[in-house]
Amino acid sequence: MNPDRDGTVYTETIVYSPPEQYAADAPYQIAIIDLSNGERVTVRVLGKNADERVYIGDRVTFVEDKNGVAYYKRAD
Amino acid sequence: MDVILKYMRPVAVIGIGKTAFGAFPDRDLRSLAVEAIRHAMDDTVIAPLEVQAFYLGNFAGPSFVGQNHLAPYVGTAAGFEAIPCTRIEDACASSGSAFFHAWQSVAAGIYDVVAVAGVEKMTSQTTPRVTEILAGAGDMSGEGRAGATFPALFAMIARRHMYQYGTTREHLAAVAVKNHANGAKNPLAHMRKVITLEQAMAGKPISDPLTVYDCSLISDGAAAVILVPLDQAKRYTSRFARVLAVAQTSDHVALDTKKDITEFPAVRSAGEKAYQMAGLRPGEIDFAELHDCFTIAEIVASEDLGFVEKGQGGPFAAGGCSAIGGPKPINTSGGLKSKGHPVGATGVGQICDIVMQLRGDAGERQVARHRIGLAQNLGGSGATCVVTILEGAQ
Question: CATH classification of B2-125+219-241, choosing from 3.40.190.10, 3.40.50.150, 1.10.10.10, 3.40.47.10?
């Protein structure tokens, strides 16, 4: 966990038609989030259930970096 | 800008040629491009040996069909001999960019007869592979790695547009319904199918909130035009179109570098430059071909080009303002949505469609006022934009 990397959802989508390399992950959610330091980044959001998805304005927490991708989940 | 323009020659499009857009398993990239170039040369009675330079727009031939060095590969097959043949790649704006560079070379007095073509052969790959190749027009170190496809990038734009301006799913669907209605009447369109609002709303989800009916088609196809200086155009044809303006601008490739993703700075700047060059206001454009790679893209472009106030592009489309009988017909060809989107061919294809309307040759799709048309060709999620304004021969 790294609170400096927590952020707010600026926009999001659920990808149902993935590129070849992420075929096994679909459907998955990605989001552009605003970090507290003003940076804006594109990240993957964890969770496949309706109650885990995030919407514009939701707070999200950094979970981990894996293969160069930052994974986030909805902040409780 | 003004200083340079003072020395430039006015330019005309004297010949246009297109293949049908669609899925053509028996056709290769080169034969499609050559067919379009031959149609353009026949349209104006130009022989291949009269052509002094050739520009080819193509996005991803090396990835889609495993062929590189495409400009001489196509140019020699079209009969061009010992002339500069140059391929230009600017994602989905590749042939708009090729047109811009060809126009510059004629306007600057370097050549008198230049051929421009665009081509893409996409349907020999699976949809996941095509999705991956297209994602390469985004920033593969950031958004691409996170899993952003092109539908995903435009879905995120749509989400934000809905949030900021109250744009609805119905507004998006209305763009698809209109463009399919137009494309159904275009003999060269990929998907000649009328759809209902209900169908468009209930389409298979691709990237929420976009359904399959919000996305342009994966197509094969080619388009070509011939350019000469305006003062020589009448030698060849009375059916030329004058190029009033062409402007190409750029912006960051990654969507997350933009402050407000509901507008494209490159579209705004290309539009402003083109209007300034042509001495026209948005209200003086009779009709337009806008880059509707996704339904939301047409909505945003109609705003960025000043056809409608910011945020009002959805109601503008849903209210029939951009229909063939409306005050500002948009995508009378069917757009990328129904006509098809062989990405490298799209920019020049739009210019061919504009010239058809200027000539009064658009059949049952013909618009009533057709003196001045505008084409807007977008690369990636707004990193390249080319805006062209054309005027019919009086």
Answer: 3.40.47.10
Query: Which of A9, A10, A11, A58 should one mutate to test binding to chain B, selecting the residue with the greatest count of B CBs within 10 A?
Result: A11
Question: Helix axis angle, B295-304 relative to B265-278, nearest 10°?
Answer: 50
Q: What residue ranges of chain B are covered by domains with CATH 3.40.47.10? A: 2-125+219-241, 149-216+244-392
Alpha helix locations (H) across chain B?
Answer: 2-5, 29-44, 61-64, 70-77, 94-107, 127-135, 143-146, 150-165, 169-183, 197-201, 230-236, 265-278, 295-304, 313-318, 335-338, 346-359
Q: How many Cβ atoms from other residues are within 10 Å of residue B297's Cβ?
A: 29
CATH H-level, domain B149-216+244-392: superfamily = Thiolase/Chalcone synthase (3.40.47.10)
- Chain A residues with CB under 8 Å of B208 CB are 13-14, 16
Helix ranges, B311-388 (H): 313-318, 335-338, 346-359
Give the range among B133-137, B280-284, B352-356 with minimum mean pLDDT: B133-137
Predicted TM-score of the model (pTM): 0.97
Domains of chain A: 3-74 (2.40.50.840)
Farthest-apart Cα atoms in chain A, separation = 34
Mutate to test the interface with A, among B156, B167, B300 (most CBs of A within 10 A): B156
Confidence at residue B3, expressed as pLDDT on a 0 to 100 scale = 47
pLDDT in tens, chain A (76 residues): 677 889 999 999 999 999 989 999 999 999 999 998 899 999 999 987 778 899 999 999 999 999 889 999 999 8
> A67 vs chain B: nearest CA distance in angstroms?
9
